[in-house]
Amino acid sequence: xxxxxxxIGNLKGLVIRLLLTTSYYQLSVQNWFSLHRLQLLYNHSVxxxxxxxxxxxxxxxxxxxxxxxxxxxxxxxxxxxxxxxLSQLWEVTFIDFQIQGFNVQEGHFAYAxxxxxxxxxxxxxxxxxxxxxxxxxxxxxxxLIHLKSLDRHYECKASPAYFAQMKDSDMGDEKEPxxxxxxxxxxxRNQQFGKIYI
Length: 198
Description:
By secondary structure, the protein is of the alpha+beta class. It has helices spanning 121-145, 151-155, 168-174, and strands spanning 2-4, 14-25, 30-42, 45-52, 56-58, 62-69, 78-80, 93-99, 112-114, 175-180, 183-188.
């Protein structure tokens, strides 16, 4: 597929040549087309050659990509074919690139297969947020399952409280009168603690 610029100023002699191939893949049970190479020709001489990577789609579809470029910031789908030729001196970028090599009907593109990878930044962010939400939900369910209700403690019948009996002879020793504004009160000298069994 050759793109010529016609009578556009200094670009009269510039031609962009796209080399496309089609192959049958048994796994998908259909034909796929691939862009293998891109050549830049000026005045019928090849100036630069780039190998294309990742530009392929089913033969009944078209291929679309926001940027097809030789620059690293656009994922560099076009790679110079050799370090010795002039490809290193060229920077090629196609914006809103769409191509269909075969089965073109009525001059319109078929359904486009996009170049966006499965793990794009937006999808990665969504996966990370989903993972965080799942962890919070799992922790909340774990806390709810292991929550102990106070009602379980009241289901058991408590035995009556038991206090050690004090002798009458010790009662006089254990309390001492306190003088306080005419009211009589007592202070325990020897305090005994009772045990409560539940």
